[in-house]
Amino acid sequence: MAPYFYSMKKLLLGFGFISLLVGCQNEIAKNNSSDTIYWGAIAPLTGDMAPYGLMDQNVARMWLEKTNLSGGVLGKPLKIIWEDGKCTPGDAAQAAQKLINVDKVKIILGTTCSGGTLSTAPIYEKNKILTLNPFATNPTIKDAGDFIFRNVPSDSIQGKIMGEYASGKYKKVGIIVEQTDYALGVCNTFAENFSGEIVKEEYLASESDFKTRITKLKGSDIEALIVCNQFPNKGDILLKQLEEQNWTLPLLHNEVITGTAEVYTKHADFLKKVQAIGANFIAPNTPEVRNFAEEYKDKYGAEPPYLNYAAAAQDALNILKNIVEQVGTDQDTEKLKNALYDGVFQGLYGTITFDEFGESTLTHQLFSFDGEKYIPFTQ
């Protein structure tokens, strides 16, 4: 009986394997021959970074409506499947696995946050998933993989121009930095380009009381303070506590405060007093960008809170549509990847190309606060 039972077990297992194989083939065939094209997207739809993720989703919805009304992609309607990456590496990785293994997508927009981008990059590389990111700026993304592209500038530029500016003015500065991949990326690049002495205070993203750290920095004989935060609400709290402790030294900060009008208008008097200078990259002041902002306002009741990233998000979608229609499929990611490397694209940011690392040609610049808003800085 034992040999018979063993042979039957082998036969049943064989049938099971064949059924599984056929099922997988059917799933792949279904994805390729579907009347609808599916892409994925990962963004922080909840949590402190949700303003970025929800804006990203709004831009995509607005773009998707127009795209599908005008024939879709390859003559088919396009649907974008959204997952909440929550701006954490673990949640982003889990979202990527779901989009790849359950939804069978080959193209993923995002991930919005740098930590999530770095955690998902090995997954994308292993599965040859093409991703174009209009948000994540950590310098190490440059080496994250052959299928990882972004159409926003690297923080290697942001940190560099901040460090070079400070080197020309100060011999000793303080840094207060949030412990996230994005904020530390800016801070580390600043340090590499600053010729003087640095006193650094790092805080967890969960912290909201900076008074002890501010007191330490005030007593360290620094000449200026460098702020590198990721979450806009933490920038708000930090500025409030600096003001409460009568901070008077010059302030140099990354793009989060510069790009968040709700924060800098609230602390306008303080930022003017400390001669605040911030880095940022800005969308061009062109009719196309103004029309885009107005269209967003008409649909959602207000202009995009971060116009530079919103414009980059729309450019990313148009670039992806362009290469899919050029290649003739959204399934052959090798050809799609090569089309990105070789292509010259037109968008809200003008002419866009990608180098051998999948990096775009956009750059940061410095802005000074004039009492109402940030304007291009001139020395």
SS content category: alpha/beta
List unreliable stretches of 5+ residues.
1-32
Amount of beta strand: 15-25%
Strand order of the largest sheet: 7-6-8-9-10-13-14
Number of helices: 14
Compute the number of structural domains. Answer: 3
> The CATH topology of the largest domain, please?
Rossmann fold
User: In one word, what is the shape?
Assistant: globular
Helix content: 40-55%
Taking the alpha carbons of the first and last residues, their distance comes to 91 Å
Q: Based on DSSP secondary structure assignment, what is the total number of beta strands? A: 14
Please tell me the overall pLDDT.
91
CATH architecture of the largest domain: 3-Layer(aba) Sandwich
The whole-angstrom Rg is: 24 Å
Question: Class of the largest domain in CATH?
Answer: Alpha Beta
CATH H level of the largest domain: which superfamily? Response regulator
Biggest sheet statistics: 7 strands, mixed
Question: What is the string of SSEs from the N terminus onward?
Answer: HEHEHEHEEHEHEHEHEHHHEHHHEEEE
